[in-house]
Amino acid sequence: MSDDSGPAPLPSASPRAGSLLRNHHGGHAQVSYIELFFDLVYVFAITQVSHTLHQGLDALGLARTALLFFAVWWAWIYTVWAANWADPARTPVRIMLLAGMLASLLIAVALPEAFGHGAQDRGALFVGAYVTLQIGRTLFMAWAMGRENPAGMRNMLRITAWFALSAPFWLMGALADPAGARLGWWLAAVAIEYAGPLAWFRTPGLGRSVAQDWDISGAHMAERGALFVLIALGEGIVATGASFAALPASPATTTAFVINFAGSALMWWIYFAIGAERGAEHIAGHAEAGKVARSAYTYLHMPIAGGIVVTAVADALLLAEPNVPATTALIATQCGGTVLFLVGTGLFKRFASPHRNFPLSHLIGVGGLALLALAARPLHLSAGALAASVVVALLIVALWEWRSFHGGWRRAVAADPVTTAL
Fold first, then answer.
1. For residues 182 and 174, is the Cβ–Cβ distance under 8 A?
2. What is the reported pLDDT for 175?
3. Are residues 226 and 122 both part of a single domain?
4. For the purposes of burial, counting CB atoms within 10 Å of the CB of 47, is it exposed (0-12), middle (13-18) or buried (19 or more)?
5. 77, 67 in Cβ contact below 8 A?
6. Are residues 180 and 153 in the same domain?
7. In this predicted structure, what is the pLDDT of residue 210?
8. SS3 for 382?
9. Which domain-ending residue is among 169, 190, 213?
């Protein structure tokens, strides 16, 4: 959806005494300690998603895990939007976030058995916690905005209506056969919810949202998006460290451990060296920061985090058997997860670039990884050789981008005497 700059959004009226809202008027809003505390649950949730995929490495398992990841991301990102407006220093807001944290913890607990059978079926727990979190938090925000931000209140009511529309699909899925219709019901629920922002939450009787309704702190949104990338990377680091500590020491496992760490470090570099800062500058200075946040952070950060989660599964497979021939599961998770990460990061950087160019370095990396995935079995690559090749591909992407960026910066400085003087 277009992010063309338009007229600056009108600032909401200054919060009154006793207001539950931040007074940032689109400027900087500091990430609070309670938001970081809230994120701790999502470290566990991402671990649960990764374990769920590890236990179901087939097409059905991938579809189920993707759906669960979509739900986890949607629960987290909507709370980020809420905390962008609500003041975490106020007690009612803190209680709301703690209640959301509890609901999120229940969601995370239920994830591995969301498609379980019999006594192991936790689909109802997953749905109950998820629907309660989404509707409860949004109604709280409508109440909190009611006095000084009527447009924001109406926007929250529209969002509540969309969550209410998807709720029956979640509930029908919880009642359906876990091995049969449940996935279909839940996919329909996710499709409804993900369509909401794209449709500007158009609701009968309440109209649709407009850009002026999304008067957010762009800097806060950028920082929160970067923190979720760290959550996903941290889950892989913790899982790798725990698995390595439990294994007998050997040259093969030590090499696999180093390869896994190098892959995580390079993904961190590729996202944070240029992309995170450029994205933060783009949204902070944009006249319609809400539209940028919807596209660049609400949607485009999903493949970035999702790719990291998938590569964490590949890390576990590598540590378990570093010397065996690369399996289809390892090729799919190692190459597929890295491609997903590079595509997501490239699209994010393209969105934040003034030239709207997809980075050539990322395109080369994606192409190289696709060829590697096709050639791994014919070449009889071992698991360790495949993972090392992926790390080399990431290193090429990082070095290529660094050289291109800094070379372009030097040329710009040389051509601009004012910049040179500065």
1. yes
2. 95
3. no
4. buried
5. no
6. yes
7. 83
8. strand
9. 213
Same domain? For 392 and 265 the reply is yes
Query: d(Cα 211, Cα 384) in Å, to the nearest integer?
Result: 49
CA-based nearest residue to 35, from 115, 92, 100, 131? 100
Q: Is residue 237 part of a domain?
A: yes
Confirm whether 400 is domain-assigned: yes
Question: What CA–CA distance (Å, rounded) separates 321 from 256?
Answer: 9
Report the candidate in 195, 199, 170, 194 with the shortest Cα–Cα distance to residue 182.
170
If one counts the domains in the chain, the total is 2
pLDDT tens per residue, range 179-212: 999 999 999 999 999 999 999 999 999 999 887 7
Tell whether 223 and 157 lie within a shared domain: no
H runs (alpha helix) in 178-300: 182-198, 218-246, 251-270, 276-284, 289-292
Nearest to 381 by CA among 396, 394, 371: 371
Please state the φ and ψ torsions of residue 116, each to the nearest 5 degrees. -75, 175
Is the CB of residue 387 less than 8 Å from the CB of residue 359?
A: no
Q: Which amino acid type is present at position 410?
A: R
- Per the structure, the complete domain to which residue 286 belongs is given by 218-421
**Domain-terminating residue out of 213, 245, 267:** 213
Both 185 and 236 in one domain: the answer is no
Question: Token pair for residue 397?
Answer: 């992407």
Question: Do 223 and 178 belong together in one domain?
Answer: no
Question: For each successive 10 residues of the chain (422 residues), what is the average pLDDT?
Answer: 39 57 74 94 95 93 96 96 93 96 98 91 96 97 89 93 98 95 97 94 91 79 93 92 89 95 96 83 73 86 96 94 93 96 94 82 96 95 96 96 69 40 26
How far apart CA 260 and CA 264 sit, in angstroms, is 6
Sign, CA torsion 348/221/32/46: negative
Q: How far apart are CA 354 and CA 148, in angstroms?
A: 36
Q: Which residue in 277, 278, 272, 243 sits closest to 257, CA to CA?
A: 243
Tokens 């063309």 sit on residue = 4
Token pair recorded at residue 225: 């998006």
- Same-domain status, 57 and 74: yes
Tokens of 385: 């050789």
| Residues 360, 384 within the same domain | yes
